[in-house]
Structure formats: structure tokens, C-alpha cells
Amino acid sequence: MKQVEVLLVKDVPNLGKAGDVVKVKWGYAKNYLIPKGFALSATESVLKNYENIKKMKELSLQRRKRRMEKLARELSKEKLLFVLKVNEEGKPYGSVSSADIVKKLKEKGYNIDRSMVQIDSISEFGTFQIPIKLHPEVVANLKIVVEPER
Q1: How many helices (H) and strands (E) does the chain have?
Q2: 39-85 residue pLDDT tens
């Protein structure tokens, strides 16, 4: 049976990952992979176009990473102050949550998503370094100060 080369545009178990060029039986390509959107016929123009798209995606990811690195430098210079009430034992009444941190950052003009803040809550007084995951390879350390109400 005739074999053809196809460019996988999605991961296909037991065949390959997106971006791989693989040889498969002609019927498998014609009746399953191509109609279901898993692959494209590996013509010269398709491969060239795919390479261009891949390069553009890489450039876009690099630009995003550079923007996130700049934002990380800015965030590491910031210091957020939270004042909590004190209970009878001198301990904080309440806590500082990731939502509280995001709210204060938004007030300062930062657009940070709650899922980026790598804590659940802070329920004690002191100074803390909170990791903010901006990108898979970029983490900013934000300084948080929690003080008792006077």
C-alpha cells in the first residue's frame, strides 16, 4: 500500500507530536488524519508555511517573556503594606489573601491574575517575599509587609 508524508498539526498517540513529519498509509491520511484536522499533506509549501508560523510563534513567545521579565523587575521593587486588626492574644484577626494582593496591585496599575500569586494566605505579621509566576520561566518576588493595626 502507498505511503505518504503528512505534517501533524496536533499530537497523535503512537504516531507523533504536532510539528512532526511522518510517513503513514495513504488511506489513513486521506480518511482519518486529514479530515479530522490532525494532519496536512506534507507538501513543500505547507512545510514552508508551517516553519514560518513556528518562527513567528517563537518570536512572539520571546517578546512576551521579555515583557514579563521587565514586569518582574518592576514588581520586585514594589512593597505592599497590609494592616490587620489584632485579636486579644496579639495575633492577626484575618489574613491577607491572593485576592487582596491582586487588588492592591491593580490599584497600583499592575494587571496580575490571581492564579499568578503563589500563596494561599498570610495570617501572621511580618515581611514576606511572595512569588508571582508571570511566565513559565519568569517569577517575580513581591515584598509584602503585614503590620498590626495601631
Answers
A1: 3, 9
A2: 999 999 999 998 998 899 899 999 999 999 999 999 999 999 999 99
